[in-house]
Specification:
The structure is a single chain. With about 375 residues, the protein is an alpha+beta fold. The strands form five sheets. Strands 8-2-1-12-18-17 form a six-stranded mixed β-sheet, with helices on both faces. α1 packs parallel to α5.
């Protein structure tokens, strides 16, 4: 049996990798470099603290993935020889606003209560945080440290997944513009702009924002929308930032990555005021960055569902078709490779993902 995976980003490639590990034949159909690609424009976090504050099932799913990440990274290195620079020694969120710190701490306490104490984090006031991270500035009122968090080089991750899929016998069709998808139970044909037709007995639609173009034909609502995110990158610096945060991290090459902007701007990707605010926040947290040279900025479009949570949906129209989307493809990559294939195969060992179905939007 061949499974067609439409979408060659981190989500689609993670699913393809997991299916191949189970002995399933896979063809990945990837678009062109002109497509909106969240996988090449993300922050690279394996982030848990605060995720799912209003949706504990999402928090639990994210944590299940984070716990698999060390083995996932090691497996990829053994298959491909590529070190994706994964680190999971914990993360720190920095706050320059006391009310924001208090609210985030309350959200985390709510999750800790839900998980009966099994949700590690620590709120640190300024002086204690400065012992942990001496470089913070006086405007930082405090922070939250959690050992659950980590980060990775996302471009190396995508490269490793691509290499692993091909080395394990998967077919990767790049630069492939899909013009038509026809489906029937356990019989799918994808037609490309070149006229080539690819056939499979199962299909996974993981095309990010492009999923909206094909969802209805396969029995999915595919309610995805773009959300703008922008990032600044500094010149390479001596290593000083041990712990990543949701807004600032130092990558393995030495540059400091500043981001986490979220704007509902449709398909527009950049605006100067947002970049100025990112730079201002970074200098408030780490004054040493004030005179550091910025070498580039980039932007991407997140793939967002109406409530911001992942969607995992089996088609009610055709047997064997599945829709997978999320905006946390890095955090969830280990679960998508290690756990989602059982769900796609409808095995008894599959995780219960019913709370992530599209039916939640129809109430």
């Amino acid at each position: 049996m061949t499974t067609l995976v439409i979408g060659g980003g981190v989500v689609g490639m993670s699913v393809a990798y997991g299916l191949l590990k189970q002995g399933i034949r896979v063809t990945v159909i990837d678009g062109s470099d002109t497509d909106a690609r969240a996988s090449r424009g993300n922050f690279g976090l394996v982030w848990i603290q605060g995720k799912g504050a209003k949706a504990p099932h999402y928090a639990a799913w994210s944590r299940s993935s984070a716990k698999l990440w060390q083995g996932f990274a090691q497996d990829l290195k053994e298959v491909t020889g590529i070190d994706i620079s994964f680190s999971q020694i914990g993360g720190v969120e920095y706050f320059t606003d006391a009310d924001e710190l208090q609210q985030d701490a309350a959200d985390l306490q709510g999750l800790r209560d839900h998980f009966k104490g099994d949700y590690p984090f620590e709120v640190l006031e300024h002086s204690r945080l400065k012992q942990l991270v001496p470089e913070i500035g006086p405007k930082v009122v405090g922070g939250i440290h959690s050992p659950m968090d980590g980060h990775v080089n996302p471009l190396l991750l995508l490269r490793a997944l691509s290499a692993a899929v091909q080395q394990m016998g998967g077919r990767l069709q790049t630069g492939a513009k899909v013009t038509d998808i026809t489906g029937a139970d356990r019989a799918y044909t994808v037609t490309l702009e070149t006229g080539e037709r690819l056939e499979g007995e199962a299909l996974v639609l993981a095309a990010g924002l492009g999923s909206a173009d094909y969802g209805a034909d396969l029995g999915f609502e595919a309610p995805v929308r773009p959300q703008q995110g922008q990032v600044l990158i500094t010149e390479k610096l001596p290593f000083f930032l041990k712990y990543p945060s949701g807004r600032i991290r130092q990558v393995n090459e030495g540059g400091v990555q500043i981001g986490a902007s979220k704007a509902e701007t449709g398909a527009d990707t950049t605006d100067l005021p947002t970049l100025q605010e990112l730079a201002r926040y970074a200098v408030d947290v780490f004054p040493l960055l004030e005179h550091v040279q910025l070498v580039r900025s980039w932007a991407a479009l997140r793939v967002m569902s109406p409530d911001g949570l992942p969607i995992y949906q089996r088609s009610a129209k055709y047997a064997g078709a599945h829709f997978v989307t999320c905006h946390s493809g890095i955090t969830l990559a280990a679960a998508h490779a290690g756990l989602l294939p059982d769900w796609i195969q409808d095995r008894n060992t599959a995780p219960d993902l019913s709370l992530f179905s599209e039916s939640r939007f129809n109430v």
